[in-house]
Design goal:
The structure is a single chain. The protein is rod-shaped. The protein is built from seven helices and 27 strands. The chain is α+β, with helices and mostly antiparallel strands. The longest helix has 34 residues, at 2-35. The protein has three domains: 73-96 and 322-393, conserved putative lor/sdh protein from methanococcus maripaludis s2 fold (Beta Barrel); 101-109 and 241-316, Efflux pump adaptor protein, beta barrel domain (Elongation Factor Tu (Ef-tu), domain 3, Beta Barrel); 116-239, Beta Barrel (OB fold (Dihydrolipoamide Acetyltransferase, E2P)). β22 and β23 (338-346) form a beta hairpin. The protein has a six-stranded antiparallel beta barrel with strand order 7-16-19-18-17-20. The protein has a four-stranded antiparallel beta sheet with strand order 4-24-23-22, with helices on one face. The chain has a four-stranded antiparallel beta sheet with strand order 6-21-26-25, with no helix packed on it. The chain has helices at 2-35, 78-83, 148-167, 173-187, 192-201, 252-255, 382-393; strands spanning 37-39, 47-48, 62-64, 73-75, 87-90, 92-94, 101-108, 113-117, 122-127, 135-136, 141-146, 207-211, 216-221, 228-229, 234-239, 243-250, 263-268, 276-283, 294-301, 312-316, 324-328, 333-335, 338-346, 349-354, 356-360, 364-369, 376-380.
Amino acid sequence: MKKLRNSILYLLAFLVVVTLGACSHEEAEHAEGESATYTCPMHPQIVQNEPGTCPICFMDLVPVSQGGQNEGELMLSDSQIALGNIAVRRVKYGDVGSGTILTGQLVLDESQTDIVSSRAAGRIERLFIKETGQSIRKGQPLYELYSEELLTLQREYLLALKQHQELGNENPRFASFLEAAKKKLLLYGLTEAQVRNLASTEQLDARVTFVAPSSGVITEVAAAEGQYVAEGGVLYRLGKLGSVWVEAELYPQEVAQVQAGDPVQVSVQGFAGKPVPAKVTFLSPEFRAGSQVAVLRAELPNEESQYLPGMQANVMLPSRTDSSLVVPTDAVIRDESGSHVWVQTGKGTFQARMVTLGEESFNSVAILSGIRENDKVVTSGAYLLYSEFVLKKGGDPMAGHNH
């Protein structure tokens, strides 16, 4: 009797275990059936519990979890990805390059500017150059001056020359007198050729032609014909083109990116070649009056004189940030919510990620936070994904994120 009772108990226990196992299996199958739902990528209102085609566009349904897609996530079919030209690339560390490109202008190098002044008091009889912007070469006639003072110096030179010729052999002092008279003429701006011509012709002339002391470009004509000028009066300003300056304006947030001595790249408009290297020589210690800009000045070599003052140029500042995650500029979506990129999280699945931007150039931008190395970021078609999400979900993919 006791053995029969034990057998009955063992049998009941076995039946309970089998029943519970069967229930658990049915629940698992039921849960699995509920979680496997299918929807149309183009018409998310179509939802089925089994694979098939969309009754509207006849596209293949894609699986989706029971709870729907994750927040900010979008699913596309292979045909949609191909039609939208959606391309992805793994994120890597790199350098953005030049973070800032400034608009500048070429100006004359003031350190190489010459002032042509009158060597003696007199009247301007003739100006050979009357317009600014003209190029001149060293030794080219600039102006003709009538001066009684120069006429007196010529007489002294001819007298010393005659005394040296007649009495120089008897008294060596006359040679020193002649040399002193010649140096005085040279100090007053006459050339060696003019002194030799005076000695050979012995003809006095109160009108003396003065020549350019160096080659360059006339930047200012400060006198006129018939004008009386004092000794030292400014007649011309002459700029040299062996090197030119590039001046650009910096905003407060850009001042810290550059300092004197830094190399920069300069691209002059009208010259389609590669940017020319230049060197920053000056940063203004204060902002311009009435504005919030500082002046940057770089020296640009101009040995062939192809660059002229007044030309527009772009100045590319060097990057000062360490290596960071870099994505193309087109991969970043900017709106009132902030900045985000689309990351591929699975086959045909893309998720919007809020990112913090760093330094930026024309074609790339540094990402400080929001994505990790080797994440697959959409580099082409990001705006199409954004528009598709708004069309399907009717909202911002970044809605609800902490900005």
